[in-house]
Amino acid sequence: MIARDLAVLWHPCTQMREHPDTLPLVPIARGEGAWLVGHDGRRYLDAVSSWWTNLFGHAEPRIAAAIARQAGQLEQVILAGFSHEPAVALAERLLALAPREPGRAPLSKVFYADNGSAGVEVALKMAFHWFRNRGQAQRTKFIALENGYHGETIGALAVGDIPLYRRVYAPLLAEAIFAPSPDAYLARDGESPVQYAERAADELRDILERHGHETCALILEPRVQCAGGMRMHDPVYLKRVRQLCDAHGVFLIADEIAVGFGRTGTRFACEQAGIQPDLMCLSKGLTGGFLPLAAVLATQAIYDGFLDESRERAFLHSHSYTGNPLACAAALQAQAIFDEDGILERNTRTAATMTSLAAELRDLPHIADVRQAGMILAFELTKNGDKATPFAAQSRVGLLAYRKALDLGVVLRPLGDILYWMPPYCVDDEQLRLLADTTRAAILHATQDAA
Ligand SMILES: *Cc1c(COP(=O)(O)O)cnc(C)c1O
User: pTM, whole model, 2 decimals?
Assistant: First the structure.
């Protein structure tokens, strides 16, 4: 199986030369709950929810059945000029659940795409095109945050700031304006996360004073910069951003692709700041982790800005599989499970268990930071366990920890030297205990070899 794979497949986010010697390649036969089961029968706890997509466990029977039902009825239809029940019902549902801010017109229209990056492209293009339709063609710029991530396509990459993904392609990318990240890990000694977030917001205020008139939108990941290393910020920053965007007539795009659907404790991360974005991107957990789908939620004002006699003023963006019925049926069932199983309440308890298990690891010598936002918990590893001494890149501490954890039956895929827990919501106490014990063993193993 591995030889056949390597003969024909080119894997994502992988230096293929590292397979299979440096980096094991693990064939998976099936999944059940929080477990992945290998071809050899070995079981792995999926502590990263299969790249943050899975919500309720693998092969969740209700979602599997919903997809099968839909497949027997209508698998796909062009969404230009045609409609179908799952697309409409899902849009109704998402809009009803979307963050609300008193006194602000609600998000009221849904545009579908088929993956997160494509959803980000949709939001960026909508913001730009809206101003153009208004005769404000000078608004061509986007503001994004340092250390942010919004996907891999050329437009999404342009507003991302992770050098590993971006640097090579920089000559191809539209220029974005990057504002300092409110990431609490960057706070100075003695500075609280709130104070640091306020300081980052002050810098954003200055940037908007200079560039507001030429900016169409600001894009950010609310609460947690996930691909940037699960770096977290205080919600006060989001409140400030909302005010600043309003003051400068700049749209606020909330990329909730990773943090949405209960990951940070609330259904959407924006709720923790009591703010409502003008555009909101959803994907990853949207279908419970079964099928690729993205949804971009927009305000009525944005939608209205495209109504015109001219076709060029319309938003002509399209993907062949826009609003695929199978994916929409999966997403509708996933939303139903939130209610049926009381997921958000359950997650509050699970997150508390994660907090206490992580506290047991806090004193390991190489841990510089333990941070948590709901169902996301991260350990930042450094040489001396302080922020000043990151490991050298070539020590590959994260990789060593990853391999050790895999040997112990846990998928703990790091981001550099940051290990994180982002388990499916069905994870139980026994599995969390395994996760914590494995994390301890993996950290001890990786840091001892790297020292
Ligand atoms: C994963 C991710 C994306 C991109 O989604 P894909 O489906 O992988 O293209 C965009 N934004 C954020 C915040 C993400 O975590």
Answer: 0.98
